[in-house]
């Protein structure tokens, strides 16, 4: 009998994985709270919320019950010309917690599609009002997903290199990280013109680009400047949404409201795939016409899947509970204290925190051979300690589910301290 991992290796191609050199995949048999239970009996503390999607812990019984009930009622239906309770209720409950100018919910089924839809809404908005605009501004090192439009507005890197000839042109602004704000704003003065259709950002925290963090004041200024040219502002909150930054949405730190928002990942508590693009009345209205050519011709087979919407409604119940807000605050306080401890390490630099997201760089200009492949060394070391953290290059970060206990946080912190001790040698 072949093991699960051997069977996998015979038939599966994994995401973001060099299949020739990748170690055998680790079979997970069960999840509960912040712990993944492995086939070999080990436990793995999930400090990255399983690729940033999980909010309330794995296999949450409340979400499971709601999903099971929905499965027995209506598993799926076409969403053109038809509707259903979970989709309407989710839209009704989302809009009041979003920035006050958001008026409409458009469903898709993942973060990349949520971004594609936002870009198409933005481009077609200008087309529909008869003033086509062709330019887009984005941040360097941005990550907005892996489909072509989403890749095009992402920072260009080794990941996008094979596709470079197929990606539409985008103008990049450096991220206004602390100390660079004035320089970025000055550059922005020349980049933002009446030709820019949209400015897309991951507000306050760039995820995949390395957990780069910047201040609300800097983004407010850029948004305000872009807006003087009528440019549509797209907040990609696929990662930052649903409490990660300490507020329900990173956009709530801003006084300038985005015109379009992209949501996914945590929206279902990490249970099901669901994407949402939201927009203002002005954008929605630009598609209303007796002229069929002004229609947004976009949709996916699993648009507004009722089971995914049911999972999202259940997750929202859990998220808006007072105890959850207390959990988020508890994690923030713990992280802040641990950040102070990290400051004492000579191999740690650029410690940064926004809400429940804590990140730092492992300094790589040391002398030992570890530093040549520090990412792999750190990753494997932590896995062996039973802690799942997946460094982005030399950047280590915590993105725990909100149910993570203080004891579990301490286990993860201690594993990181052990790693630092090893690297300091
Ligand atoms: C993950 C991510 C996406 C893409 O979402 P997928 O569901 O993986 O397609 C888009 N934007 C941001 C900011 C993300 O972190």
UniProtKB/TrEMBL annotation:
PROSITE patterns: AA_TRANSFER_CLASS_3. Its cofactor is pyridoxal 5'-phosphate. SUPFAM superfamilies: PLP-dependent transferases (SSF53383). It catalyses: (8S)-8-amino-7-oxononanoate + S-adenosyl-L-methionine = S-adenosyl-4-methylsulfanyl-2-oxobutanoate + (7R,8S)-7,8-diammoniononanoate. Its EC number is 2.6.1.62. Keywords: Aminotransferase, Biotin biosynthesis, Cytoplasm, Pyridoxal phosphate, S-adenosyl-L-methionine, Transferase. Substrate binds at residues 51, 143, 265, 299, 390. The keyword Transferase applies. Pathway: Cofactor biosynthesis; biotin biosynthesis; 7,8-diaminononanoate from 8-amino-7-oxononanoate (SAM route): step 1/1. InterPro entries: Aminotrans_3, Aminotrans_3_PPA_site, BioA, PyrdxlP-dep_Trfase, PyrdxlP-dep_Trfase_major, PyrdxlP-dep_Trfase_small. Its main location: cytoplasm. It is found in: Cytoplasm. NCBIfam families: bioA (TIGR00508), PRK05964.1 (NF004624). Catalyzes the transfer of the alpha-amino group from S-adenosyl-L-methionine (SAM) to 7-keto-8-aminopelargonic acid (KAPA) to form 7,8-diaminopelargonic acid (DAPA). It is the only aminotransferase known to utilize SAM as an amino donor. Belongs to the class-III pyridoxal-phosphate-dependent aminotransferase family. BioA subfamily. This is Adenosylmethionine-8-amino-7-oxononanoate aminotransferase. The gene is bioA.
């Amino acid at each position: 009998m072949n093991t699960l991992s051997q069977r996998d290796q015979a038939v599966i191609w994994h995401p973001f994985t060099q299949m020739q050199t990748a170690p055998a995949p680790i079979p997970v048999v069960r999840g509960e709270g912040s712990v993944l239970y492995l086939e070999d009996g080990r436990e793995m503390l999930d400090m990255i919320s399983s690729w940033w999607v999980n909010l309330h812990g794995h296999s949450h019984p409340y979400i499971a019950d709601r999903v099971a009930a929905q499965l027995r009622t209506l598993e799926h239906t076409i969403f053109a010309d038809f509707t259903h309770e979970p989709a309407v209720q989710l839209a009704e409950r989302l809009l009041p917690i979003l920035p006050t100018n958001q008026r409409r919910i458009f469903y898709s089924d993942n973060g990349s599609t949520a971004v594609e839809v936002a870009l198409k809404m933005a481009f077609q908005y200008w087309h529909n009002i008869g003033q086509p605009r062709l330019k887009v501004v984005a941040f360097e090192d941005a990550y907005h997903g892996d489909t072509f439009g989403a890749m095009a507005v992402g920072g260009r890197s080794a990941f996008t290199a094979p596709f470079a000839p197929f990606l539409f042109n985008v103008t990049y602004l450096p991220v206004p990280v602390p100390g660079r704000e004035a320089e970025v704003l000055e550059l922005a003065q020349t980049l933002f013109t009446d030709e820019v259709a949209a400015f897309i950002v991951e507000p306050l925290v760039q995820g995949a680009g390395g957990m780069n963090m910047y201040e609300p004041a800097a983004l407010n200024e850029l948004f305000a400047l872009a807006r003087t040219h009528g440019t549509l502002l797209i907040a990609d909150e696929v990662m930052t949404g649903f409490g990660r930054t300490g507020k329900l949405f990173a956009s709530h730190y801003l006084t300038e409201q985005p015109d379009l928002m992209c949501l996914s990942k945590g929206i279902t508590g990490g249970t099901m795939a669901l994407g949402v693009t939201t927009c203002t009345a002005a954008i929605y209205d630009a598609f209303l016409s007796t002229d069929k050519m002004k229609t947004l011709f976009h949709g996916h087979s699993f648009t507004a899947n009722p089971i995914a919407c049911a999972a999202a409604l259940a997750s929202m119940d859990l998220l808006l509970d007072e105890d959850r807000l207390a959990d988020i605050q508890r994690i923030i306080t713990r992280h802040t204290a641990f950040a102070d401890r990290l400051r004492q390490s000579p191999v740690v630099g650029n410690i940064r925190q926004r809400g429940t997201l804590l990140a730092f760089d492992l300094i790589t200009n040391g002398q030992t051979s570890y530093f040549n492949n520090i990412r792999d060394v750190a990753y494997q070391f932590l896995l062996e300690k039973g802690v799942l953290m997946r460094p982005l290059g030399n950047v280590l970060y915590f993105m725990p589910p909100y149910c993570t206990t203080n004891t579990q946080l301490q286990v993860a912190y201690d594993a990181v301290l052990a790693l630092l001790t090893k690297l300091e040698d």
